[in-house]
Amino acid sequence: MSFLDKIFGGGSSGSPPADVRRPGASYMRGGRSVVFRGWKPFLREAQRDIGANWDMAAARAHDAIVNSGWLSGMIDQAVANTVGGGLRVKPQPENEVLGQSREWATAWSKSVSQKFELWARTPADCDIEGHRTLARMQADAFRAWIPTGEILAEIPWRRRAWSRTGTKVRVLPPQRLSRSSDPMRRIVNGVSLDADGMPVGYLVKRQDEFGSSSDDMVNARDRYGRQRVVHVFNGPIGTCRGIGVLTPVLQVIRQFDQFSDATLTKAIVSAVFAATIESDAPTEEVLEGLLTPKERTQMALDGVSQMEAFIDATGGFYEGASLDLGINGRLSHMFPGDKLTFNAVEGPGPDQEKFFKMLLREIARALGMSYESATGDFAGATYYSLGKSGDEIFSITKMRRDNVVVPFSQPIYEAWLEEEIEAGRIEFPGGIVGFHSNRAAACRAEWHGSPKNVADVLKHAKAQSEWVKMGVKSISMVAEELGYDYEDVCQAIASDADLQAQYGIERPLIFSIGAPSTPPTEDPDENDGEKPGGGAEDDDA
Question: pTM for the complete prediction?
């Protein structure tokens, strides 16, 4: 007897019984089930998927935004959370690489940041169209990134009589970047790549004064390394174009609109009435049998059918009758054989609100927002839940700042700094030659935006105080988390002290960090379970 015969119970042929399955292991073992039977997607390069679906996805997302109050408000809130009043630069030059002291780096950083802020706040200096500040361009660029997944901008050179600088910024709609491809020239969806896949040029659509458009190849950088085109996108590996974050929820957005329209229609119909008239209307044959030959001939000459003649007769009857449901519910006799029936309009059911919230939660999640922040609905939320959701959502906000807004802003800062050093308005070791030799060390900078929202400000401040007393955090780190530059804070405190001394105002007592001026009168954790509205937290919250 063979080994298989011993395992499967024996048999002359040595093969296992037909009703016994061989042991095995694999992924998706339920592949033959109903769940997987019709789910057979095709796996291909992500760039091909983006190239095939970008236009329609961007168009649908844009249409949804401009035609939905919910979505438009969510976009505004997402822009406010990520960009706010604009990201501010804090230069951090590598002083050791440049052979300079830390004191030089601090003084140089302060001077550069003040000059750059002055340039960024003047639309005539920073915007080639003269309309926007840099903060507004950051907001508009991020707003364009949400439905398209891309930011497109140029850094042209244009000197004007009233502007000292020639560095300007032009923010372009992402659809201005061509979608054409040419494998022989290494052009993929409008992006020209070198042998390593690095972008070296972009096909930008230009329109002349006659309305005709053409693709213009613009080099990504000039011969000195100055970036001419800013193209920011987040995409899978192997892609050179992005796609909007709303693409996965376009179907949900459409379903929400359809459900809203259906609910509104139901409410309107229920507010008035729904009624049908049931009539024993005769068929064409019966009507024809009721007519005389003369009537049939006349109707044929007039081009009137038997049904039209019956409708005219019915209308003639009701013309003198009173059928008015709006005035005291008055109702007269009906046409013989007619019956008025009122119909009840059924609603979506008791779970309508839950379904609405489920759709909105999915849309808010795609936008990197919490449901409460996206909708303004804080019913049922507690301080703890708001704090936890704020911590997690802020990590997404910070990631998008670092990966979307900062890559848009940093090349602009570098181009401006290069011009200022070359013009001699900013001193730099080695001048413009030293800058080109140490571009990365000279242009290193941090960008700071608005701090995250805190549900309980007092508890957050106490926690920060404990971190400082433990030596884990510095006061400057706390100031940065709050969105302030600690050097500006110290300068403001010193300025306030000088102003108070000038007017003879006695300075207020400054207590040590975390030490309360009066003994606490209540347990600091007493309100942990309270909701923002003041109600007690539910047991199952």
Answer: 0.74
Measured CA to CA in angstroms, residue 288 lies from 281, 304, 316, 523 at distances of 13, 12, 19, 92
State both tokens at 6.
């011993």
Which of 214-228, 276-290, 440-454, 489-503 is least confident? Answer: 276-290
Q: What is the DSSP letter of 535?
A: P
pLDDT on residue 510: 52
DSSP state of 540: T
Cα separation, 216 vs 346, whole angstroms:
58
> What's the mean pLDDT when you consider all of the chain?
80
Provide CB contacts within 8 A for 446, sequence distance 6+. Answer: 89, 90, 92
Which pairs from 191-200 meet CB under 8 Å and 24+ separation?
191/231, 191/240, 191/241, 192/217, 193/240, 197/240, 199/231, 199/240
Give residues with Cβ within 8 angstroms of 266, minimum separation 6: 345, 346, 347, 348
Look at phi and psi of residue 9 and say left if phi exceeds 0, alpha if psi is from -120 to 50, else beta.
left
Q: What is the pLDDT of residues 51-80, one digit of tens each?
A: 888 999 999 999 999 998 889 999 999 999
Cα separation of 487 and 476, whole Å? 8
The full DSSP string for 106-157 is: HHHHHHHHHHHHHHHT-HHHHBTTS---HHHHHHHHHHHHHHHSEEEEE--B
Give one word for 410, left, alpha or beta, with left for phi > 0 and alpha for psi -120 to 50: alpha
The upper half-sphere exposure of residue 453, i.e. CA atoms within 13 Å in the direction of its Cβ, equals 16
Q: Are strands 275-279 and 445-448 parallel, antiparallel or unpaired?
A: unpaired
- Mean pLDDT (whole number) for 334-345: 61
Q: What pLDDT does residue 386 have?
A: 78
Token duo for residue 481:
């988390």
Q: How many CA atoms lie within 13 Å of 107's alpha carbon, on the beta-carbon side? A: 8
Q: What's the pLDDT tens digit per position in 99-110?
A: 999 999 999 999
CB atoms within 10 A of CB 500: 13
Structure tokens at 127: 């915007």
Residue 131 backbone phi and psi in degrees, to 5:
-110, -40
| Count of beta carbons in the 10 Å neighbourhood of residue 55 | 11
> Is 445 in contact with 410 (CB distance < 8 Å)?
yes
